[in-house]
What does this fold into?
Amino acid sequence: MSDSLTASKSPASSSGSAASNPVPTIRLESVHKTYDLGEIQVHALRGVSLSIFAGEFVAVMGASGSGKSTLMNILGCLDKPTRGQYFLDGRDVSGLTKTELAKLRSHKIGFVFQQFNLLSRTSALENVELPTIYAGIPIAERERRAEQALERVGLADRAGHFPSQLSGGQQQRVAIARALVNNPSLLLADEPTGNLDSRTSIEIMDILQNLNSEHGLTVIIVTHEPDIAQYAKRALEFRDGKMKKDVLIQRRLIASEILPTLPSIEDEDDLDAIADRAAPSGS
It folds into this structure.
């Protein structure tokens, strides 16, 4: 981990939101996850215990195979522990049925993925509406919520555009709007900047920081990029299925402060064109 991280205190003592609400949004107690692959058992998580409180912004880091994606699947109620307990807002969800977990996901959790997972023949507005359909929201309310979610990510004027008419960053904004449309209390983002250029990545982090600071949304991201983790408030590092580090970000990056210092996409294109013209012939 970066030298700009400092040793963690307990969340209850370091988070103002935790002090006012002693019940963690997320609590894992000795969680194990084992996958049976024929005669081989893969131990993806080995006794993980942690707490995350409302209003935190946490980055989960680790190499491929470290257990971070398995952790996110459990936190998102997409999978269940083999052993141990998972409490979401104080409720033990470890033993819930698939139907109960699906209902919980629909109302409490928003998901953002590296692959935007948008329907190609469906407009931005209609893509954002999808979770409200599964939640049984009336048609008029679906559209209102979708329009509001697109406005929150700065894409109200792109509601009628199809994914092929949007840049990668705009598609990820649509995906974030889709995650917000059912007003979740928890946002899980798996490598949300993995397919984006540097400036667009910071723009996405600006949106996530705003959702966290201005709207109180609890945000957890998986990332393999240390610089992206610096936009979080806290970082968890996983290795071989165990949580090896739990640290607070000491010198946190603020996306809204960094963006004005970067060239726009148009400026970068102009600089590339100038460099091409200045290059010696045949180089």
Q: What stands out?
A: The mean pLDDT is 88. The first strand starts at residue 5 and ends at 7.
